[in-house]
Amino acid sequence: MGPNDVLEIVREAIIVTLKLGAPVMLIGLSVGLSISLVQALTQIQEMTLAFIPKILVIFLSLLLLGPYMLRTLTVFAKQLAARIVSGGG
User: Fold this and answer.
1) pTM score, whole prediction
2) 65-85 pLDDT tens trace
3) Are the beta carbons of 28 and 54 closer than 8 angstroms?
């Protein structure tokens, strides 16, 4: 296994990490931004008003996106194991 193989594995690992984390983070960002906008418009500055809906939406998105995330991680792990078995090529 040469340096090019290692760089390819690292690149694939970064892509898998983005595939797993980006949807949940973007959902949390959009909910947080919309709640902050409502707070700015109504001048209600309550911390739990921003925290609780964001946590609920993130948990819900994890429940809905869980199978996709597991499938993505499983495919990556199988490809990595196949590479290890074949000698890195």
Assistant:
1) 0.79
2) 999 999 999 999 999 999 889
3) yes
